[in-house]
Amino acid sequence: MEERLFEMKKGRGRVWWWLYACSMQLGLLLIWVYRASHVPEAGARGRWAWIAVSAAELWFGFEWLIALSVRWNPVHRRTFQDRLSARFEDKLPGVDVFICTADPTLEPPTIVINTALSVLAYDYPPEKLSVYVSDDGGSIFTFYALLEASRFAKSWIPFCRKFNAQPMSPALFFSKSSVTAHNSNVSEWTAMKKLYEDMERRIDAEMKHGDISNEIKAQHEAFSEWGSKTTSKDHQAIVKILIDGRDENAQDTDGFAMPTFVYVAREKRINYHHNFKAGALNALLRVSGEIRHGPIILTIDCDMCANSSQPIRDALCLFMDEERGHEYAFVQFAQYFVNLTENDLYASSFKIVHEVYFPGLDGQGGPFYTGSCCFHRRECLNGRIYSHETNKIWLERQRPKIHEESVGALEERTRSLATCSYEENTQWGNEMGVKYGCAVEDIITGFSIQCRGWKSAYLNPKRAAFLGLAPTTLSQSLVQIQRWAEGHLQFLLSKYCPPLYGFGRTKLGLQIGHIFCGSWGFSSIPTLIYVVIPSICIVHGISVFPSVSSFWFAPFAFVIAFSNAFSFWESHFYGATFKCWWNGNRMDLYRRTTSYLFALVNTTLKLLGIADSSFVVTPKVAHDETLKRYERGIIEFGSTSPMFTVLSTVAMLNLFCLIGGAVNVLAGGGMGALEQLSLQFFLCAALVLINLPIYHASFFRNDEGRILMYTTLLSVAIATVACFVPVF
C-alpha cells in the first residue's frame, strides 16, 4: 500500500485539559446551585438586579460549555510533499487563484499587486497556474497597476525562483531582507528592489494625479474601456488577459513559461443587486472556467500575500491522498498578519483560534471556510454532492486548452459571463457557487458543502502560508468583528441554521461550533448586564454576590482565578506575553459590548425590514501619525463612533461606581459592607483597570487619536444619571 501524503495526530496534554474542564464544570455547577437556592424574596430590594446577574452567569456557563465542546478533539496535520512529488509531479492539477478587491482607496492598487505577484511566484508548474483578480470597483488605477505588475512579474518570478525569496510579496520581501555590500548577490538584489520601487512610484504618481496619462493609455487598448461616465457602481463587464499562459512567447527573463494572469471587473449597474464579494467570486468561477478551468481554486483576500512558496503542494497532499483525499472539499489555511504590534494591541492575531479552535473543528469534520486562504475543489463550489462510490476521480482532469481562440475572442466571450443579467433565473448563489443573502457568505457556503457529505481540513504549517494586514485602529477592528458577528447571527437565523439544516448531515460538534459563533450577538446582553448592574449596585449598597465569609464565595473565587490562570497559561504557551494576554481580554470586552451589540441590533432591524444588508470594506492603509501611534501601542479612537460612546460610558460608570462605593464604605458602611460587596468591588476595579486607556484618551491625550470631547461629555452625563437610577 502506498504511503499516505499526510498524517493526523490528536492533541497532546489531554489529561491536564480534562482536569481543567472537570474542575471548571464543578465550579459552574456550584454557582448555579447557589443562584437557584438564594433567590431574594419577592419585593426584596435588588431582586431583579440579582436575577439579571444570575441569568448572565447562566449564559456565560452555557457559552463556556459550547466552547469546550469545540475544543475537545483537536487534530493536527502534517503533509509529505516529497511523496506527492515522487508520485504525482506529472499529474498535478491546474490551480486557479482568485483575488478580490473592491475599492482602490481603501485597498490601494500597490497592495493588490503585491498579493498578485506573490501567488504568481508560487513553486508550481506555470502552465498549470492561473491568477484572476476581481476588481469590483472597476478602477482604471487597479487595472494599470496590474498591467505594470504583469511586466514586473517577468523579472520577479525568476528572482524568487533563483533566491528562494519568501515572502514572495516584493514590498514585504524587501522590508524584511537585506544584503551586505560583500554579498555576491548584492547587484541583483539592488537592481530588483529598484525595479520594484520604480514601478510603485509610477503607480502612486498616477493615483496622485487622479487619472492615467495619455502616454500610458496608448500602451494598451484596454484603457478605452473606461470613459468619463464610468463609476465604481455603474460600468460594463471587463475581462483582460494580461499574461496568456497558452502563448509560447509568454516567458520570463530566464526563458521559462509564465502563469496566466487575468483582470476581471464584472458589470455593475445601479438597478442590480451585485451580492458583494459572493457575486464577485461567482463571476470569477464562470470566467476562469472558460479560460483555464483549474480543478483546484484558491480564494485569497487582496491584502493576504503568499508567505511561502509551498501551500499549493501542501493542499494537494490532502486532495490527492489515495486513501482519504476524495473526501475533502476544501482545505483552510491559518491566516496570520505581518503588521501586528509587539503586544497585539487589538488582539488581531487570533492565535488561540488558529492553535486550538480550528484544530478542534478539524476533529469534528472540518473547519469553517473563512473566505480567504482556502483551497477548493471547483466541482464542490459548483454544487457537486459527495458520493463515496463516484468521487474517487483524478484531479488532473481538466478542460482542454483552446489553442485556436485568440486572446481578444476569448476575452469577448467570457465578458458575457460577468454581466449583471447572466445569473437571472439560474441557481447561481443558491445551488451553485458561493451563497448569497448573508454577510458571511463564505461561512454559509462552506457549511452547505459539508452538508452535501464533504469534509474539510485545516492546515497550519510551521512557516505561515499567508500574511495579511490587520486593522490599525480600534474602529476598524470593531467594525470588522461586527460584520463577522452579524453574518454569523444571520446564518444562525437563516434556513441554513446549523442544528436544523445540518441535522443528520454533519457532526454535532461542527453544528455546535457554528452555534458558538452565531451566539456572539446574543452575548452582548449578558456582558452588558455583568459590567453595569453589579457596579451600580455598589453605589446603592446592594450585594448580588455571596460575602467573603460565605461557603458560596469559594466557587466564584475559584472560577474567576482558575479560568484566568488557564487563559494566561494557554496564551503564554502559544507565545503571547502578559501584556498581549491583557490586551486580548480588553478587546474581548470591547467586542462584546460594541461589535456584538451592534451586530444584534442591525440583524434585528434587518429581520424587521427596517435596514438593508451592507458590506463594509476594511481599510488596508492608515495615516502616518495613526500608524506611529499604533506601532507604539496607543489605542486609536479619534471619531464620534457610537461604539466609542458605549465603551466610554461603561468605563466612566465603573469609575464613578468604584469611587462612590468606596466613599460609602468609608463613610459608614464599615468592614461588614466591604465583606458583602467584595466581589463587586473586585469586578468594578478590574473593569476600571482594563479601561485605563479610555480614561487616558478622554482626559490626558491631545493627539488626533484621543476620545473627542463630545463623546467624553456625553458618556459622563449618561454614567452620572445611571448611578442614580433606582435598583429593583
Automatic annotation (TrEMBL):
Alphabetical list of Gene3D superfamilies matching this protein? Spore Coat Polysaccharide Biosynthesis Protein SpsA, Chain A (3.90.550.10)
Q: GO biological process: any one?
A: plant-type cell wall organization or biogenesis
* Residues that, per the record, bind Mn(2+): K277, D301
Membrane topology, from the record: Multi-pass membrane protein
GO MF term (any one): cellulose synthase (UDP-forming) activity
Q: Which UniProt keywords apply?
A: Cell wall biogenesis/degradation, Glycosyltransferase, Membrane, Transferase, Transmembrane, Transmembrane helix
Where is the protein situated, by its record's location annotation?
Endomembrane system
Q: Where is the active site?
A: D136, D442
User: So where does this one cross the membrane?
Assistant: 15-36, 48-70, 528-545, 551-569, 644-665, 677-695, 707-727
Q: Name one GO cellular component term.
A: endomembrane system
Query: Which annotated residues bind UDP-alpha-D-glucose?
Result: E107, D136
Principal subcellular localisation of the protein: membrane
**Can you name this protein?**
Cellulose synthase-like protein E1
Taxonomically, what lineage is the organism?
Eukaryota, Viridiplantae, Streptophyta, Embryophyta, Tracheophyta
Name of the encoding gene: CSLE1
